[in-house]
Each structure stands twice: as C-alpha cells, then as structure tokens.
Amino acid sequence: MNLKLKKIILIFLALFTAIAVGAGCNKENTPENGGQTKTEAEDDRAAPDNNGEFKYIADYLPDVKYNGYEFRVLSTPNTAYDGLHTAFDVEEETGSNVEDAIYKRNRIIEEKYDIKIKQIEATGWDDCVAKFKKSTSAASDDFDLCMLISREAWAAAIDGRIVTVDKLPYLDVSRPWYAQYVNSEISVEGKLLFAYSDECLNMFEQTLCVFFNKKIVEDLALENIYNLVKGNKWTIDKFFEFSKTALADLDGDDVWTDSDRYGIVTQSDMFYPCFWVSSGIKTVAKDSGNLLVFTGNTEKLFGLLGKVHENVFGGPKIVYDANVDKFTTIKGGGAEPGRDSSTQQFANNLALFYVRNIAIAESMRSVETDFGIVPFPKYDEAQDKYYSRIIDGWINVVPVTNSDLEKTSVIMEAAAVESKNVIVPAYFEVSLRYKYTRDDESQEMLDIIHANMTMDVGDTFYMDAVRNIYMGAMKSGDFVSAVEKKIGSVEKTLQKANDMIQSLD
C-alpha cells in the first residue's frame, strides 16, 4: 500500500468514526446522563502496528481460548439480496474485496480465541425471523447470534427475546468501532437494546443517496451538481427543478411509458421518507425524559410533504410511476422486479436521477452510462448539513436463550474491532471508492453522506405504525387528516414500547 493511499484511509476512518454523540452501554458513559464518550485520541485505540498499518485494538478483551467452540450465527448468504452483505462468514476467499475481508476477519478471530465459526444459513431475513422466534419460544439454545432486520430486532428486544447491551460484559459501545450516531437515536431512557457497530456493514450499504446521469446534465446544460452540494445549494427545490427540466416525451405519443425520459426513478420506500429525514425531521423522537414520543405532526413536516405531493402528483410526470393508485413510484412497487426496472431505466439514459441505497453501486459497475453520486438534498440552504437516511440495518443480536454471554460478548467485540480494521477499509477505501464510483468528486460526496448518516425510528422500527401514514396519504396530499386519524394509536404504540423497555431487567 502506498503512502498516499494510507493517508486517505487514515483521514476517512477518522472522519467516519468521530461523529457526533454516542451512547454508552452503561448510564454513566452516555452523553444524555452528562458523561463523555471515549475518543480514539483519548484512549489511544488507533495506532500503527509493526508493519506500519493502521489498526484498532480492544485491549480490555481477555486473553482466552475456547477450545474449538463452535460459534453459531444464523444469517443469510450475501447472494440473497442484490448488493447487500448480510453473511457473517464466507467459506473461502473469492477475489471479492469485501468477502475476502469477511473471510480474513473471521479467521483472525478463530485463531485468536480458538473457536470455529459456523454460519447457519437462512433463505432470507423473514426466514431468520421465523427461526429466531421458534428457537426463543422453545427456550432452545440453537445459535449464539441471529441476524434480524431492524424493525424485527426492535420488536424482539422490547418483547424480551434479545439480551440487551448492558448484559453483555465486553461490549463497550463508546469505542470508535460503534455507530454512535445511530445508537444514540435508538437508546431509550439510557437503555440500549442492541448496538450497531462496524460489523454491521449492511447498515452502511442501506444509506440512501442520489445517482445522477452525467450525460443528461450535460445535454440540458444544468448546473454542476457537485458544486451545488459543496456550496450548500443542493436543495429539494433544486432537485425538483432539475427533474422537471429533464422530463421529455421522447416518442411524442402523449403517453408516459418506459420509452420516455423522467426526472426521477426510484421506489416509494426508498424515496418519500428521504425528504423528511434529509431535512432533519423526526416522526418519532425522545422527550426530556429520553422516552419515545411522536413528533410527526409539525407544520414543517406537513409543509414539506405538501411540496413533495404537489411536485410528484400535481404537475408533469417527473417520477417514473406506472401504478400511482398504489402510491408506488416504479413498476412492481417495492418488489425486486420493480427495483431492477428502475436500474434499467437509469442505465438507458432515460432518467436524470436515481434515488437508491448505496449498495446498488456495486451492481451498477456494469452500467455504461456515466453517473455521479451525491447526498439527498437539503430542506433549504439554511440547513447546516446534509443528512443521509439509513433505510435499514440488519443486525446480529443475542437471543435470550444464549447460555454464555461472556464468551459471546468477547467474540462480538472482537468482530466489531476487526471489522473496523479489515472490512471497513476493504469496502469504503477499495470497493466503494475505487471500483464502484466513476470520479474523484463522488468519493468526496461519499464522505459527506457517511459523515451524517441518521435514522428516524418512525421510519425504520415503526414502518407500519408511523411511516405508512404518510406513504398512504401521498397521492391525496391530505397528510393532516391522515395523522389525526392515527395519532391516538401511534401514541399508544409508543407508550407501550416505553413501558416494556422500562420493565426490562
């Protein structure tokens, strides 16, 4: 590795991990209780090894051997979902940077602690959920960790099926290999039910961004979008302005089909919530007592959603939308065939913007059209930063049936720190930056996107109860009435969650 690349990695990792507030595993370590989270500098966790390589060390982990213990993890293979890395282990090195990094990380852990990692493969996230519920209901110790989609992990946690962070003695979530900006959002009354770390690469991959078609930008003589971002002028208004400019009935038949050019291609779940999350708006936040509270009925939110409704449904058909009666923005809705159709429309130079999670960049390597990547736009120029919405994060959790929490927490912490050492550089510095993007500016944009990743609990954990209120009202535009009809049930749902979390031991 040359010196220049080393410097790039050092700068990026420092930026990526030293972000905003964090949540500690004990109340005395949490910012909300007046404590300070640890930093890399204070703890001297980041230092070159004997080969001059950048490395993190969790020196509080015990020097133990587990005599060949079979460490069992239930998860899906990487091939189960396009572009997403969900597997905990891979059988062999394949030449893929990320999969080879996963292989290397796990072999390091196996050798250090004398264990053998066994991946129990499910057919998909729903199969993981079914197996997890069956095992915990039967009080059967079938696996040490289980991968759950975020909303299912949350539901299982408040139901008491998951071991909370404070019961896992070697997890120190104040360390730089934890996603502190996200964990601070999901702690309730100082209690963290589960914690996102660098082991959860899936969370990073499911961050939303905007791909733009460079050819169309050039053909229409639009402003340089990279410069707009860097000048803090990349706003929702500008996004819609460009989208309308790109609209063209190319075959002149006055019927909008996939032969015409659109401003935007996307899917409803990828698209609409980005507007409020990127504007710094939360539909579920925390009150002064650090308990969940509904905040999705503000004038700012209603005004923003009204603007989105007017631009999507009140004028020219800027969004590629073949089934508006179901409030979808792409053929097939959120199903995978619909997502493939979006990609193809963009690849055919028939859309200016493509709103999608970053993971799709891997499969877009084969797309011939030249594209760039930018964060989702701001609410307005006065907003202080670009917020990047995390749509999901499939996380490995500890089932309550686990019989050895000390051992499990040691392996979990080792996986987190070695993910930072091995997998993060392989993904961000090699694959994402040098294989999947097309220019230096896109790499700069990735820094902006990942420095300000955030999550709205109402969008992720309470998709059905909260997010779908706005999704269902998108065509009519009557968001106020939609919220008024549901606010009572939403508040009861959140109160129940608060009560259940407070009752956890």
Topology:
Blueprint (H helix, E strand, L loop, with lengths): L2 H15 L22 H4 L2 E3 L5 E3 L12 E7 L21 H17 L1 E7 L3 H13 L7 E4 L1 H9 L21 H7 L14 H5 L2 E6 H6 L5 H6 L5 H11 L15 E4 L2 H10 L6 E3 L5 E3 L4 H15 L22 H12 L3 E7 L2 H4 L7 E4 L13 E2 L5 E3 L7 H32 L3 H12 L1 E2 L2 H4 L2 H10 L6 H25 L2
Parallel strand pairs: 3-4, 3-5, 7-10, 12-14
Antiparallel strand pairs: 1-2, 5-13, 6-10, 6-11, 8-9
Helix pairs in contact: 3-15, 18-19
How would you sum up this structure, described in words?
The protein is of the alpha/beta class. It folds into two domains: 223 residues, Periplasmic binding protein-like II (D-Maltodextrin-Binding Protein, domain 2); 231 residues, D-Maltodextrin-Binding Protein, domain 2. Helices cover 43% and strands 11% of the residues. The protein contains 19 helices and 14 strands. The strands form five sheets. The chain has a four-stranded mixed sheet. Strands 7-10-6-11 form a four-stranded mixed sheet. A hairpin with a 5-residue loop joins strand 1 and strand 2. The longest helix has 32 residues. The radius of gyration is 23 Å and the shape is globular. The protein starts with a helix and ends with a helix. The N terminus is likely disordered.
Number of helices: 19
- Total domains, how many? 2
The percentage of residues in β strands lies in 5-15%
Task: Give the CATH topology of the largest domain.
Answer: D-Maltodextrin-Binding Protein, domain 2
Q: For the report, how would you describe the main beta sheet?
A: 4 strands, mixed
Extract low-pLDDT stretches: 1-42, 322-338
- Tell how many strands the DSSP assignment holds: 14
Instruction: Sum up the overall morphology in one term.
Output: globular
Structural classification: alpha/beta
Give me the Rg, rounded. 23 Å
Helix content, binned percent:
40-55%
What is the level 1 CATH name of the largest domain?
Answer: Alpha Beta
| CA-CA gap between termini | 49 Å
The CATH superfamily of the largest domain is known as Periplasmic binding protein-like II
